[in-house]
């Protein structure tokens, strides 16, 4: 009965709304969703980095484990629980493919979410993004059913318009035993920094700025901290010869997200490279990703992992998250921080309060 009432309300509001971006944030539309997101909101936290609201998190274990978006974390991390209390958090582990990080606060008795698979969720179903209070952040519909990403969307990259680029498309180079031995340049932009320096398609980069390059991901990670105009040294294997190059990094071309960012529609810095996503037209700000998303029955379908377009938010589905949780808790992925928390932290009062 309640679901039918919601559906009728949605139809009436949608008819009177001029644009989808306005529908997702329309207070008349958000109101009826309060009971639907109520339980998920009790499992949603605000994460602060260096005293700034940065991202949301989702409680996944009553013992203080919280999932969030890894690429947004930096500096000292605090977690604000639904009751308003704040605790310093430690990074336990991170998973690059999904951009998930597991945090830990020394608090017991938290309310974790229970995940429900999205495989049978049809296109057009209504969804709501839960926030750390009783109001939903946004509502919208499933635009594209759970799918694997392809093309450039399948490549994990941090979008930063000031980042430095070589103008290459690398892939892993392997030896006869299948072991990764460098980053092979499968394509080079004709006017890019690499081409100007003399690098060629087929060259295998084995060192960047004196640091070894064993995979294409290693090279991308090293480049991530560099800016356009930076001068870098590269060692590359061509046939059986090692050649040395010096190049000045270029500026990345603006993509649609960079342009939209400049127009006031802030997208997530990392919005590609996920193994699977559920595509929605939810309007979720980049700083509000990391929280749970529910259907009309209140079932948690996954976590908002990226604001990918002006009216496009991607959900990392439950069937991707659930199998990772035991390994994240066990530390089988890279440990990002080994900081020891106080055994009984006192609530932290935010500055100015």
Describe the structure.
- Mean pLDDT is 84; it is low at 14-22 and 335-353.
- The strands form four sheets. Strands 5-4-1-2-3-7-6 form a seven-stranded antiparallel sheet. Strands 8-9-18-21-20-19 form a six-stranded antiparallel β-barrel. Strands 11, 12, 13, 14, 15 and 16 form a six-stranded antiparallel sheet that branches.
- 18% of the residues lie in helices and 34% in strands.
- It folds into two domains: 2-148 and 268-330, Thrombin, subunit H (Beta Barrel), CATH 2.40.10.120; 164-251, Pdz3 Domain (Roll).
- It has 353 residues and is of the alpha+beta class.
- It contains nine helices and 21 strands.
- It is elongated, with a radius of gyration of 22 Å.
- Keywords: Hydrolase, Protease, Signal.
- InterPro entries: PDZ, PDZ_sf, Peptidase_S1_PA, Peptidase_S1C.
- One of its GO terms (molecular function) is serine-type endopeptidase activity.
- Residues 155-228 form the PDZ domain.
- It holds the Pfam family Trypsin_2.
